[in-house]
């Protein structure tokens, strides 16, 4: 083997070695990029989940506030109806009491007819 053949063989070996090294470097770079991409996707998924939970918490809070407000309004309406009914009952009672006080003092009585005489029992109430 002469020098030229040795140089050609050495050049082939060196180019093969450099090709292997470049391919290995590219493979390592691709693997690192893949790891970074996986990490980034997981971070994006976590951030999306956090945003979703925050939106859900906000929605739940707003819904709860609406439910509380509706309950307060219903309670206010029920209390208003109760107070109106109580006021109406008080007016009816006061009128009834006035009427009862006006009719007191009338003569109340009962009578029976026995044989030939009339038995009369009269009661005058003034209260």
Automatic annotation (TrEMBL):
Gene3D superfamilies hit by this protein: 1.20.5.190
SMART domains named among the record's database cross-references: IQ
Organism: Muntiacus muntjak (Barking deer)
Highest taxon of source: Eukaryota
Protein name: IQ motif containing F6
GO MF: calmodulin binding
């Amino acid at each position: 083997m002469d020098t030229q053949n040795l140089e050609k063989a050495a050049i082939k070996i060196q180019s093969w070695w450099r090709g292997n090294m470049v391919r290995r470097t590219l493979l390592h770079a691709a693997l690192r990029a893949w790891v970074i991409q996986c990490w980034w996707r997981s971070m994006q998924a976590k951030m999306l989940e956090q945003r979703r939970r925050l939106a859900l918490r906000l929605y739940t809070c707003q819904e709860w506030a609406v439910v509380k407000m509706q309950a307060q309004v219903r309670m206010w309406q029920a209390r208003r109806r109760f107070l109106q009914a109580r006021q109406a009952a008080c007016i009816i009672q006061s009128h009834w009491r006035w009427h009862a006080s006006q009719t007191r003092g009338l003569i109340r009585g009962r009578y029976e007819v026995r044989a030939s005489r009339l038995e009369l029992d009269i009661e005058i109430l003034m209260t």
